[in-house]
Specification:
6 helices, mainly alpha, single chain
Length: 153
């Protein structure tokens, strides 16, 4: 599926580049692609630093910077799309750099994948009990001690 999307996007980008080139000229099209890359790299740097500052602020407030990390992933993907020559990928990449659309992408990813990530059947959580007991050397309980520190500063 990913291969077909890649091929379709490449063909679509070539068609758009050819159409724009016919309309405004070859060198103008190349300059426009370079201009969008420069604008995108400037936005990428600014949004990356902004997200890093928000992550540091969350850490300083003893919060997990999970949202900022997801924003960083969206910014990374947007940067890759901006490096790829073409107007469609540049447009999607620029959308990934805008805070309001980045928020939409993250919420959409959560809606589509929350059940899979947080379910018991998740790759990260699921363990097969039958293989664990077959592979274990000793089924005896492990002894240990536990104490809770009630002194919080």
């Amino acid at each position: 599926m990913l291969f077909f999307i890649f091929v379709a996007m490449t063909l679509l980008e070539i068609m758009v580049l050819m159409t724009v080139s016919d309309a405004i000229g070859n060198w103008e099209t190349v300059l426009l692609v370079i201009l969008t890359a420069l604008i995108g790299s400037t936005l990428l740097r600014q949004q990356g630093w902004s997200t890093l500052a928000k992550a540091q602020q969350s850490i300083a407030e003893d919060k997990t910077p999970a949202r900022e990390m997801l924003e960083g992933v969206v910014i990374l993907v947007a940067g890759v799309l901006l490096i790829t020559p073409g107007f469609i990928t540049d447009g999607i990449g620029l959308l990934g750099l805008m805070p309001w659309s980045r928020s939409y992408f993250i919420n959409h990813i959560f809606e589509k994948n929350a059940e899979r990530v947080f379910s018991r059947q998740s790759v990260f959580i699921h363990r097969n009990r039958s293989t664990e007991t077959k592979n274990s050397i000793n089924d005896e309980p492990i002894e240990g001690e536990f104490w809770e520190d009630n002194n919080s500063d």
